[in-house]
Specification:
Blueprint lengths: L1 H15 L11 H7 L13 H30 L4 E5 L6 H4 L7 E6 L1 H14 L6 E6 L6 H7 L8 E5 L8 H13 L6 E5 L5 H6 L19 H6 L3 E6 L1 H7 L17 E6 L1
Parallel strand pairs: 1-2, 1-4, 2-3, 4-5
Antiparallel strand pairs: 5-7, 6-7
Helix pairs in contact: 1-2, 1-3
């Protein structure tokens, strides 16, 4: 699945090259190139539906990246010095964002993507702007134990990021992940999640190519994500992609398809 993370890096590299980019990720092109995804192949001719799907996914990656960047800046400004990125993939926030002195950023993922990432970082001579701590563990295993062994302090507030992750997990695994995050979160901790919007699997996954990201999507958001997270001990706000895109000066060109349901960009605070 880590190849999907390299695909996300390709999208971030393309955004970085825009004059009015919503963020700059100087390492993204190196990750994409090392993974064999740069330059991007041409889309198959005549497949307009596939082209629109790819554009839609890329657009959502750009908006969610900006959304979570902003959430992290606010959390950092509030004094939170612990950051945990779950399923970190090719996330480069430790390198591309400005962090206050004393920030510790834990990147939790399996060994394969972390090893690939480390090789690219060495090649690029990249220097983190905070204390970056890779934690090689499968999220299906005892990742809280591995995180604690790496130095995470559950008594101090943490900002958690699960970006593009929950959609790949079955419902019981999502519930377990949220319970484990909650158990490691002091009051005042924050969390940024992206959830698969209702109907996304039907729209994107039905005819997805085997092995593609969309073919591995299994989980959509609950009908009431704010209530769902309240049950896990979090006060949450829910935002739609359309709403955030407009706020960032990158409005969606397609009109809403009927009444839009709660969105999949979530910010939350631990009670």
């Amino acid at each position: 699945m880590w190849a999907t993370a390299v695909g996300v890096a390709k999208v971030r590299a393309l955004e970085t090259g825009r004059e009015n980019a919503l963020f700059r990720d100087p390492l993204a092109q190196a990750f994409a190139a090392a993974g064999g995804l740069w330059p991007a192949p041409s889309p198959p001719p005549g497949d307009e539906a596939a082209r629109r799907r790819r554009l839609g996914v890329a657009f959502s990656i750009v908006i969610r990246t900006k959304f979570l960047d902003d959430l992290l800046r606010r959390a950092s400004a509030s004094g939170i010095w612990q950051v945990v990125v779950l399923g970190a993939g090719m996330d480069s926030r430790a390198f591309r964002m400005d962090w206050p002195e004393g920030t510790r950023l834990f990147e939790v993922d399996t060994a394969a993507p972390l090893d690939f990432k480390a090789s690219v970082l060495r090649q690029e001579g990249a220097a983190a702007r905070c204390e970056r701590i890779p934690v090689a563990v499968d999220l299906r295993e005892d990742w809280p134990g591995a995180l604690a062994a790496a130095g995470h302090d559950p008594m101090a507030p943490t900002v958690w990021i699960a970006e593009g992750l929950l959609i790949y997990l079955p419902e019981d695994a999502v519930e377990l992940l949220l319970a484990r995050i909650g158990a490691q979160s002091a009051a005042g901790s924050r969390m940024g999640l992206t959830l698969g919007s209702r109907g996304v699997i039907e729209r994107f996954g039905a005819d997805a190519a085997p092995g593609s990201a969309a073919s591995m999507w299994v989980s959509e958001m609950p009908d009431d994500p704010v209530g769902w997270l309240a049950g896990h001990g979090w006060d949450a706000e829910c935002h739609t992609l359309r709403e955030r895109a407009a706020a960032y000066g990158r409005p969606m060109s397609t009109p809403p398809q009927g009444e839009e349901r709660p969105g999949g960009l979530i910010s939350a605070v631990r009670r």
